[in-house]
Fold this sequence. Notes:
The chain is of the alpha/beta class. The protein has 20 helices and 15 strands. It has a 7-stranded parallel beta sheet with strand order 3-2-1-4-6-7-8, sandwiched between helices.
Amino acid sequence: MKILHLTSHFGGGVGRALLGVAENARYDEEHCFIGLETPEKTQFINAIREQDCEVIIAPTHAEIIRQISNCDILQLEWWCHPAMLECLGKLPEISVRLLVWCHVSGLYGQIIPLQLLKSASRFLLTSACSWQTSQIQQLSPAERQRIEVVHSNGGLESWSQSVACCENAEMVVGYLGSLNFSKLHPDYVQFLASVSIHGFKVSLIGDETNKNILQQQAEDLGYPGLLDFIGYTEGVESELSKINVLAYLLNPTHYGTNENALLEAMAMGIVPVVLNNPAECAIVEHGITGLVVSSIEEFSQAIKWLDQNPKQRTQLGLQASLSIKKRYTRDSMTKAFTASYKTVMELDKHVLNFIDIFGQRPADWFLSCQQDQSIFIKDGHVKLPSNPFLRHQLIEVNKGSVQHFQRYFPADLKLTQWARQLDT
Length: 424
């Protein structure tokens, strides 16, 4: 049985998820991976190849068609990325068994296209929060039977405890993940500045997007030493072992689902403090495996309580670790995929025309993934949404934004007009 994975790239959480699939493949599965973009970092690609899996980077269109024609199952690693939409939009009618593994929630801004849900032989969510999407609610009971949740971070049962999580250790707070405001809460610094603990600071582990903006915000609030920028590192465990509290405050309309950074920290016994967003609430149980807050005041109180109650903090961390290591195992992920592959292989291949799903032109591809298409007016104007958190997705330069699509398709007049409107 040959499973062909088609992914835009191998970065971040997706790269780690695909490595997990490769590491846990059954003896009767042949996994081949196509990455549409030339990677900046090859960490996960190299590790996947070490599992004797073929990885093809930026192949020709003809080679993609040949690989799809020769596979038993096409596994689409889905999120709204211009390279993926271009690849699919230019495919001819093709006979496939289509399995989609969705790496975004589809709750805000960028949706899971309804016709993609309907066309897949099997559709896998990475978080139960995606059941709330309006597109899934529109499906018939029979169509919903083709959907299930398969978490994308199996193998956390092997992660070791953070050395900072012992009861007599001082509280050390950190954050792991993107600093982009479409993911990180735009008021993150204000949340941190509300904590009235002498010498309080937070280590930021990950890419340094918006570093200057965040540092300036801290200085403007009178806390120049509030943020310690660690930067990107492949040694995530090593950096996480230095903290015991994760201040994981995300944009309420963020696109994430499985939240690998959150899961990794919890697996190591680090206590998460999260906002009451759907994806985080599907992972963190308030007062049992972490603390869920809904305001700056509640966050400040939560951090102060964790500082003053090291015994309870350690207990929360232990419960978080046990919960994650029980739920996110290699075995559970492997069994879920094995069952899905078996189900899909019992079906005949069927003919798909991706133009019917996404449209014919780049602007159509972009709009097919937008929750509110009325934002992008046909005359080239953009109507900003009333929700200020959603606006950060609009002004993004990547993550499937109109600017992202316009860079890929500069000849598309509509994309150019919309991008210019947002640049002014």
